[in-house]
From TrEMBL:
Keyword ATP-binding annotated: no
Taxonomic placement: Bacteria, Bacillati, Bacillota, Bacilli, Lactobacillales
Single annotated GO MF: oxidoreductase activity
Organism: Tetragenococcus halophilus subsp. halophilus
Top-level taxon: Bacteria
Ranges where the Enoyl reductase (ER) domain occurs: 10-293
Protein name per its UniProtKB record: Putative oxidoreductase
InterPro entries: ADH-like_N, ER, GroES-like_sf, NAD(P)-bd_dom_sf, Zinc-ADH_QOR/CCCR
Signal peptide range in chain numbering: none
Keywords from the UniProt entry: NADP
A Pfam family reported for this protein in Swiss-Prot or TrEMBL: ADH_N
Length: 295
């Protein structure tokens, strides 16, 4: 079978398609034929030395999202060959066949196609879990930074449904217009004057601005950047959230997609042989949606 392997630290040129042995299924695993996956910022970070996620072993297969079809499962499994499935699988999704722990898998509803499915797991589950940790109460307000991004966009949609008074923060006027059209939510550009919110969900690594957080406010970030000392001093608490694979959370998310209450945006779809182009695009600023790889 084919896998996208990263053979060194570096840019897109460090990733290429290689022939490798098809993995063997262990008891408890479900063998999945990957139809589509996506490129997430974490994949780029894995390829970059000096990041929290730097790889220490090459060759490495990246990729956290899976939409695919079950090839083989245990007799007593809830899954069987032919099932359409979805998984948040940290990590190693960028290959044609992956053994996935059963508790990472979910059946993919018929109304969600594989490409759209592959856009869902990492961004949505991260948004859901981090938002939940903020425990926003009635009367509080929320600012989501990086609102046009994957995690930021899902956080906006989830918070809107929970009727939380919220606004988003984006990089420039063009993104502001796009986000206002998409979400019908107040948007601020980074260099504007921004009011103070009782809670901040940061996805953009904006962690040094005391004026956006009310005194004794709460801030959660999914970036790897450091919260500044001044923001730490002013806040009741700040936290770096790291996503956890959770079948129930993914189930909640998929149900929202099926009801039309959550949406993905797809920026581009590439074949696995075009991985370098996909990584090049993912490394750039200004994308409006997920970058999908089809296997
Ligand atoms: N801890 C975890 O468990 C976890 C899970 C998932 C993701 N993450 C991390 O969360 C971050 C966001 O992930 P994602 O998938 O949502 O990425 P994404 O789709 O690339 O979105 C990031 C968004 O933030 C915007 N942005 C970046 N810097 C900005 C700034 N200074 N001002 C305004 N907007 C800014 C980007 O705009 P431009 O396109 O203009 O740059 C982009 O719209 C990444 O660092 C990722 O690694 C962490």
């Amino acid at each position: 079978m084919k896998a996208i392997q990263v053979t060194n630290y570096g840019g897109p040129e460090a990733a290429s398609v290689q022939s490798v042995d098809t993995p063997i299924k262990n008891k408890g695993d479900v063998l999945v034929s990957v139809i589509a996956s996506s490129v997430n910022p974490v994949d780029i970070k894995h390829m970059t030395p000096g990041t929290v996620q730097e790889i220490d072993q090459f060759p490495m297969v990246l990729g956290w999202d899976i939409a695919g079809i079950v090839i083989e499962a245990d007799k007593d499994s809830a899954f069987q060959a032919g099932d359409r499935v979805l998984a948040l699988h940290p990590q190693g999704s960028w290959q044609q066949v992956v053994p996935v722990q059963e508790n990472q898998l979910l059946k993919l509803p018929e109304d969600i196609d594989f490409i759209y499915g592959a856009s869902i797991p990492l961004g949505t589950v991260t948004a859901l879990q981090a938002l939940r940790k903020l425990k926003i109460k009635q009367g509080e307000t929320l600012l989501v930074t990086g609102a046009l991004g994957s995690v930021g966009g899902y956080a906006i949609e989830l918070a809107k449904q929970a009727k939380i008074p919220l606004a988003g923060l984006v990089r420039n006027k063009e993104q502001k217009k796009m986000c206002e059209d998409l979400f019908d939510v107040t948007m601020y550009v980074s260099d504007e004057t921004i009011p103070a919110f009782t809670t901040v969900f940061d996805t953009a690594g904006i962690l040094g601005r005391t004026e956006i957080l009310q005194p004794q406010g709460r801030l959660i970030t999914v970036s790897d950047d450091k919260v500044s000392l001044n923001v730490e001093k002013q806040a009741l608490w700040t936290e770096h959230h790291f996503v956890r694979t959770n079948q129930e959370d993914l189930q909640t998310i998929v149900a929202l997609f099926s009801k039309g209450k959550l949406h993905s945006r797809i920026e581009a779809v590439y074949s696995m042989n075009e991985i370098q182009e996909a990584l090049k695009l993912a490394s750039q600023s200004g994308n409006n949606g997920k970058i999908i790889i089809v296997f």
